[in-house]
UniProtKB/TrEMBL annotation:
Record's keyword annotation contains Transferase: no
Phylogenetic lineage: Bacteria, Pseudomonadati, Pseudomonadota, Alphaproteobacteria, Hyphomicrobiales
Compositional bias annotation for Pro residues: 10-21
Residues the entry annotates as binding heme: C413
Species, as recorded: Hyphomicrobium denitrificans (strain ATCC 51888 / DSM 1869 / NCIMB 11706 / TK 0415)
Protein's name according to its UniProt entry: Cytochrome P450
PANTHER family hit by this protein: BIFUNCTIONAL ALBAFLAVENONE MONOOXYGENASE_TERPENE SYNTHASE, CYTOCHROME P450 FAMILY 4
Length: 465
């Protein structure tokens, strides 16, 4: 194609070391540990977590056991999964908003819910949503073009709006603009103070104990669930309408009893997909755009790849996705440096040994994915942005639990394929219509609030093309 450069002949860009957190050299005393944890949980992890396979915190009985060894992670999440269930911490923190849905349920309830939802997230089904993903992104580009030649905007907000619009057009059709705005605001409010609740759970303080923002969290959770209950009632009043997740949950039957899924369980799952279905992809795209703004040569290479992949078409289509390997590599490197869900937790339900470290029954095990993806023993120059880590010949060398932005094992994120396809379609469409530049000042600290936020938002200079 005329005007398209050969991306393989472009010299490699200069080395980029994007912002991260600076861990304390040693484990902090408990009061300082909790204070840092509440500000940003990632700031509380000592440097040893980045260099050792297992690190415990606590003198007599560990409050936390951090695990970053891929073989041990595979044992926890797959091989001995029955000995490492979901934690009371997860349920305490997430249940007010998400109830007993697919993210928090255990046992047969979880298996049934997963089985019902799985068909919606098959690869072929997701590809059918690409036009809706592109349409939502083109609407954003249209608003940007109306603003003029170049302007600064918070792309975190823009990506949240776009990914929520995608969810509302695809797996959860029917939510109106006012309700969508309320859900986004409530979700943000809920996450703002969530580290207080997590810290209280780690200290094993009672769930009824007050902390700053607790009342706002409860109000936000109730608001989201009320909106979802109203959405469900509207759909029940229109039987047989649609083939989205709402319709499938309404028609689902328990294979053992033939019973329908209760309204409470349907609401739990709809809230889960509304909450998780847009938030994680939005954060992935936010960090990716920042990296491309800091590494403009990579941005140019991706834009050239998109133009070449489109051939004679003007829009990204389902068939375009598989013709964007460089875009996928960049997304994976972004997910390595800034995993949207930076932490996983599990509970040891028996005394056990992890790489010579005794872990008592009832211990909280934390898999800090943010640290795993930057571990000194696992990655060469881990703080550097380098999409070539994910060339096929390089990626094949990594243990499967060394890079796991969507988790691993039977409880791997059900929406992982949806997220990657959505991120690819949105990113490719954005690069067709705009250039992103860094302002030369903002260095966003990654902050863990269930998802990985950029502190201070993500202001970038946008130049419509």
């Amino acid at each position: 194609m005329v005007g398209v450069r050969d991306v393989n002949t472009i010299p490699p860009p200069e080395k980029l070391y994007p912002p991260t957190v600076q861990p304390p050299e040693r484990a902090l005393p408990l009061p300082r540990f909790i204070a840092r944890f509440i500000r940003n949980p990632l700031q509380a992890l000592p440097r040893a977590v980045y260099t050792e396979p297992v690190v415990t915190y606590g003198s007599k009985r560990p409050l936390v056991t951090w695990v970053t060894d891929p073989a041990l992670i595979e044992r926890i999440l797959l091989k001995d999964v029955e000995h490492f269930p979901k934690t009371p911490l997860d349920r305490r923190v997430l249940t007010p908003m998400l109830g007993n849905g697919i993210l928090t349920a255990e046992g047969e309830s979880w298996r049934w819910q997963r089985k019902i939802a799985s068909p919606m997230f098959r690869y072929a089904e997701i590809l059918a949503y690409v036009p809706a993903m592109v349409e939502a992104t083109e609407q954003l580009l249209d608003t940007w073009k109306q603003r003029g030649h170049a302007f600064t905007t918070d792309v975190e907000d823009a990506m949240t709006e776009t990914t929520f619009s995608v969810i509302a057009r695809t797996v959860l059709a029917g939510i109106d603009e006012t309700e969508a705005s309320a859900v986004k605001h409530a979700a943000r409010t809920y996450l703002d103070r969530i580290s207080w609740e997590v810290a209280a759970a780690i200290l094993r303080l009672p769930p009824t104990m007050w902390h700053p923002g607790k009342a706002n969290m409860r109000t936000s959770a109730k608001e989201v669930r009320t909106i979802v209950e109203r959405l469900l009632a509207q759909r029940r009043a229109q039987p047989g309408s649609g083939n989205d997740l709402v319709a499938r949950l309404i028609s689902a039957r328990d294979p053992a009893t033939g019973e329908q899924m209760s309204d409470a369980t349907i609401v739990d799952n709809l809230a889960t997909f509304l909450f998780a279905g847009h938030e994680t992809t939005a954060k992935a795209l936010t960090w990716t755009l920042y990296l491309l703004a800091r590494a403009p040569q990579w941005q140019d290479r991706l834009r050239d790849e998109v133009r070449h992949a489109l051939r004679t078409s003007q829009r990204v289509s389902p068939g375009t996705i598989e013709r964007l390997p460089l875009t996928l590599r960049v997304l994976k490197e972004s997910l390595r440096l800034y995993p949207p869900a930076p932490v996983m937790t599990r509970l040891a339900n028996q005394d056990l040994d992890l790489a010579g470290t005794h872990v008592p029954r009832g211990s909280l095990i934390v898999i800090p994915i943010f640290v795993l993806h930057r571990h000194q023993r696992l990655w060469d120059d881990p703080g550097r942005f380098d999409p070539d880590r994910f060339l096929p010949e390089n990626e094949a060398k990594y243990p499967r639990t060394q890079f796991m932005p969507f988790g691993f094992g039977p409880r791997i994120c059900i929406g992982s394929s949806f997220a990657l396809i959505e991120a690819t379609a949105i990113l490719a469409t954005l690069l067709q219509g705009a250039r992103f530049e860094w302002d030369g000042r903002h260095a966003p600290e990654p902050v863990s609030r269930v998802t990985l936020r950029p502190k201070g938002g993500m202001p970038l200079i946008v130049k419509p093309l």
